[in-house]
Fold DNA-binding NarL/FixJ family response regulator.
Amino acid sequence: MFKKVLIAEDHESTNISVRKTLEDLGIANKEFRYYCDDALKLIEIAFGQEDSFDLLITDLSFEEDKNIQKIAGGRELIKAARQLQPGLKVVVFSLENSIPVVDDLFENIGIDAYVRKARYDAVDLKRAIEAVFQNKKYRSADLMQNKRIENSYDFKAFDVEIITLLCNGTPQKNIPAYLQQNNIKPSGLSSVEKRLNSIKTALNISNNEQLIAYCKDKKII
């Protein structure tokens, strides 16, 4: 198991929970820092003394206060820490539940695990640390489920057409007229409504605005 762990987290209650999880895993050497600048400084000192941390657990968002920081958030902390210590393992522990944001952390920042703060997150964090120690990637089960849902819908040309129209400001009730003018079928309002509702249900999206934002994020439109 990891011998030396650094936790960057500005909420004291979360630190208590993380401390208990690490103790359950038998990790005695652990440091906690409330600010990203302080966390990076500790990484630098440990690295210089050839007593590096094995694992960094960090939140993404840190509240601003009177102590102005050069490093404002977890994403920047990870990048700075990895520049100094490329082999440092990283677990992100955050409230963020956006699939594109989490995907970006894995693909472009190279994190090892993502645990969402939610019910049973202590158990989830323990599993993540154990997986990362075995050189495996890990993300919370609910995020994996959301990702499967997002990947389960196959957008057709008709879907892209009507969502693009919505994105460009065309009221839903006026879409049938455009479809008829351009000989696109089906063109009835009921068909358009059923199609949009089907997409939103498949993706667990509640309204057209969220659907448009999702399609932009995924570069579907």
